[in-house]
Design goal:
Two copies of one chain form a homodimer. By secondary structure, chain A is α+β, with helices and mostly antiparallel strands. Chain A has eight helices and 20 strands.
């Protein structure tokens, strides 16, 4: 099943069911108006949405319309939790190697995760607004899951049963603010602005055998200004699978339905696969030549993030964002 | 106006208006059923709740009933953001001095804040569940605000206009997990379990002149196992006021209605005022005698946190929690 949230001027938007091939959609308001509502009562509501999904795929849903990702909010426009891992340890190794820092041994057994802001997510085609290019604007292409209720102390394998939906994420990062916040030790408040998510969230069965062992064994594509810069395997090299990430959070507290958990930047040891964030490209350049050559993003830059199934078509639809000056957006809003 | 959320078996509970003296309550369902709904549409709904509040205070609300804090969830049982400061720099100074670490100069101009989990808050009288005493169980008595929408780039003074409600918080901390997470630099995931909040959230006008300059100029009381251990001034020594904390978060992103922002442990330079968390007591002992004597909390311990107005009575009602073993709660649940 594939679900999206259409913009309707409200904070939570309107839940729509989207066809498997992402061409058609249908309002779900006969069942539920908002995705959080479905997550709160998953066992009762999701089978009803699935019926609609089957009808839609068979061309039998009465009020179907063409699906337009540009009209989408994030599947959950706001959530009660967004906790992001750094589950591809290769990413951590590269970034640390570039600054001559060791990776502590514990990093291979204890996931690195940060709690992110979850009150104001971006839709897949929303402009990404920044006050200045000097912040070190970077994309981060990731896979994320939305969970059901997970009880404190749940083990990694059980935690996997709590995965309700999967999405792609663009975890925007302000690299020039990261060192200061890392030094404070309290995590990221300013260096991780609003995160964007893919047009649709899909149930794990949509991935078929590619969803295995708590990992998505497919390639994540990143195009920066129209040029493909990354085609990274999101599966094998994910050091901690999603069950392990969820269980890490659940060690001392419950997770409640609708919690979003991210993989962190998808990263492969084989550099020929490219990169899912510019920081990594710069780390590689530093390792190779002593200093980074690639600059961070500029106003007007575009980023496109997408994942294709083994059989070809896009699974989640694409994240397609422009890097936009905050003052420009504010000026325009005041003229509207 | 004073608002609370009654347990009704649902995830978000039932909004009630509570009388100024905390003796009577009235369901708000003629206006709104959930507090988040009110925050989403504050200018339209809050005056209607205020009318009910006035009637209730005059003994003229038709279906009023006795208010019982034990039936309360947190005013927002789950929220889209919980971001907690360490705004009383004296607390930071003490803890650092005890481990012979300097306070960086930037800490006096740049607030220390962490993003917390907000999907599973505790009610004021809910048991606090922990897997083991070895985690280093500690309370943290704080003041917190709930905001309206705050735009990216809002300055501290404007940000204060966005404060909708105030509460008390008990930001449970697992001290023995803190050093490991601090070293990772990504903030607190496991060492900050579910936070508890006071029975009622109040509008700033309820504090009268005690709400001034973005600070609450009243004393915060902490009783551990029935003994008063802290009576700390929550006003003057708050290095960063709430507007500054909110503006810090808003530097690179919007805050949306219902974001909760905390002061961090209330702490005074004059040690005779006592402490609002055990870590601070242990820091003082270490400074004085070379090592901490006071142990962290044990199963069966109780904590009571409350704030009285200048004229006497409790403003927010009391947080009253028991430290409870997780396995005991789980066994009981399986027998229910």
């Amino acid at each position: 099943m594939k679900l999206a949230t259409y913009k309707d001027g409200s904070r939570d938007g309107q839940l729509v069911v989207v066809s498997k091939d992402l061409t058609m959609a249908h309002y779900a308001n006969g069942v539920a108006t908002r995705l959080q509502q479905v997550l709160d009562d998953w066992n009762f509501l999701s089978p009803q949405l699935d019926d609609l999904y089957v009808s839609l795929n068979h061309g039998k849903a009465r009020h179907a319309f063409s699906f337009d990702p540009k009209l989408c909010m994030a599947p959950l426009p706001r959530a009660y939790q967004w906790c992001d891992g750094s589950a591809f340890i290769n990413h951590v190794e590269l970034v640390r190697k570039a600054r001559n820092a060791e990776v502590p041994a514990s990093f291979y057994t204890d996931p690195l995760m940060y709690q992110g802001g979850s009150d104001d997510f971006l839709g897949p085609c929303d402009k990404a607004l920044f006050a200045s290019e000097d912040l070190g604007i970077d994309f981060e292409a990731e896979v994320a899951v939305i969970t059901g209720d997970i009880a404190m102390g749940t083990d990694p394998q059980q935690a996997l049963d709590g995965v309700r939906l999967l999405m792609l994420a663009n975890d925007w990062s302000l690299r020039n603010l990261v060192p200061g916040e890392l030094a404070k030790g309290f995590g990221f408040v300013q260096s991780k602005p609003a995160t964007a998510f893919s047009p649709v969230a899909v149930t794990p069965d949509e991935l078929g055998p590619a969803w295995s062992g708590g990992r998505v064994h497919l390639k994540l594509q990143s195009q920066w200004n129209g040029q493909r810069v990354g085609l990274c395997d999101a599966g094998n090299e994910m050091t901690f699978h999603f069950g392990e990430l969820i269980a890490h959070i659940a060690k001392t507290r419950n997770l409640r339905a609708g919690a979003i958990v991210g993989s962190g930047t998808v990263s492969n040891k084989d550099w020929s696969h490219g990169y899912s964030c510019i920081a990594e490209k710069r780390a590689i350049e530093t390792i190779e030549s002593g200093s980074p050559q690639t600059e961070f993003m500029k106003f007007g830059d575009t980023i496109h993030i997408e994942m294709m199934g083994k059989d070809g078509p896009s699974i989640f639809g694409a994240i397609d964002q422009d890097v936009t000056p905050l003052h420009e957006a504010q000026t325009q809003a005041s003229q509207d």
